Amino acid sequence: MNDFSQIPPVYAGIFTADKPPSLIGGQCTSCGAHHFPKPDICPDCLSEVRGADFGQSATIYSVTTVRTRAPLGLPSPYSVALVDLEDVPCRIFALMDPEQAGSFSIGQRVSLHVAPIGVNNEQKACLRPYFSADK
Amino acid sequence: MVSIIGTGIIPFGRHLERSIVSMAIEATRRALDDAAITRDQIGACYFANALGSSLFGDTTLGQNLTSAMGMVDLPVVNVENACTSGSTAFYLARNAILAGECDIALVVGSEKMCVPDFGLINSGATELDTLLGMVTPAGFALRAKRHMHEFGTTPEQLAAVTVKSRQHASLNPIAQFTKPETTESVLASPMIVDPFTRPQCCPIADGAAALILAGDRVAAQMDRAIAIRSAVLTSGRYENPADLTRWHTDYASVALAYEKAGTTPEDVDIVECHDAFSIAEILHYEALGLCERGEGGRFVERGDASLGGKVPVNVSGGLLSRGHPISATGVAQIVELVTQLRQEAGDRQVEDCNLGVAHCMGGDKKGDTKSCTVAVLSR
Ligand SMILES: [Zn+2]
């Protein structure tokens, strides 16, 4: 495996560098609600939110493929989806594996990976979390 | 009650030589002429522009308009609210008159988008979703895919929205795209974001539109005044998980607007709605109560949303064909409804047109929209 430790994440604090990686979200310390990404405070009850492991498994709720000019140095075409996480009740927007672009379908099971894909708003290479079809 | 007493609009399209303010001046002059009032009678100005600051570094342009028009010592409010910028300016102007702050208010939306490398619109450059590749057409495409999955909506039904839109636009002199399309030509066009081909995505455009609003004292003397029965503006609830086959905010805003106007979907004769992409119009038929949930694709395929159909929708050509200069759109929708309700729409006049609904939506957030406006207008 490559060492990505020198490359910044596209967004701070949303995944771990473990193998396999985990998504990091927030869970409210009072009402228990799950939020992604972790908000400053719980929008449901305004209590404190702590970081929580959201796992790496999900099911596709809806998916599409962008075939026009890609933003942020993303490969073209690229697929994006809304996925339902398996470990917590949370439906989130996700980038899908560029190598599998166009091959995804609703109901398919996918899992999390992290790799350098595209650039950030400063035009620098960055790590992005993405989901791949389970083999 | 507040009424619309004047409208002004310029053709939407590429106006490379025109500035945001120059387009706004022309739309404003047309609205003043239409209302047959002078600039001195304007008591407040609500100016909408969404992209001037990011594309050109221009801010607070409303005062540039009023100063260019010699309108002095006015409350001028600059409004940015994504695609609802123009309809939010309208909402605020109506509120100012209802509050008794002025008798007559000017509403202007002006936008310039035709610049090199415009790219795709997003909902905020530092938002996580944007950074993970969310672009506006993808947000709508995810809705389309889910609607097709749950309700059997077909590519042909999606294409029918564009075919109808072009038919309508061919009757509107200010529309951008008036060339006829067929189901086959729409589906054979280049794929932008699955399942949308190019003609199912609204084009960028330059353009401006203006309205003059007035309270009862003034409007009572105007025989072409159109009454605003209700106007609402709402944000979303952003609960998880979001249902992509319906925007919570869409249904909530429509219900509130109907309730405040004391009306029901059965009373609606014409709709201008936010058809940014083909699926959007189908979802809005359902939210507006024009058909049952899940039936939107079949509604348009049957011709129910066409001129001469059950409830004509986007007779102007809508965003898909009239064009979508962001903050001019919400104002342009109301210009179209006023023209129709005055029975002045010529070849595209809707018969027995007494009550119209303007519906606009802006920005993505957590599977819902950031902003939704709905206005009910009547003769
Ligand atoms: Zn909470």
From TrEMBL, chain A:
Record domain ChsH2 C-terminal OB-fold: where: 55-113
Domain ChsH2 rubredoxin-like zinc ribbon, residue spans: 19-48
Database matches in InterPro entries: ChsH2_C (IPR002878), ChsH2_Znr (IPR022002), NA-bd_OB-fold (IPR012340), Thioester_dehydratase-like (IPR052513)
Pfam families found in the cross-reference section: OB_ChsH2_C, zf-ChsH2
Domain of life the protein comes from: Bacteria
PANTHER family: BLR3430 PROTEIN (PTHR34075:SF5)
Protein name in the entry: DNA-binding protein
Native source species: Kordiimonas sediminis
Automatic annotation (TrEMBL), chain B:
Keywords from the named record: Lipid transport, Lipid-binding, Transferase, Transport
Gene3D superfamilies cross-referenced by the UniProt entry: 3.40.47.10
Keyword Membrane: no
Domain Thiolase N-terminal as annotated: residue spans: 2-179
Keyword Transport: yes
All copies of domain Thiolase C-terminal, residue ranges: 242-363
Catalytic EC class: transferase
Domain of life: Bacteria
Protein's UniProt name: propanoyl-CoA C-acyltransferase
Natural source organism: Kordiimonas sediminis
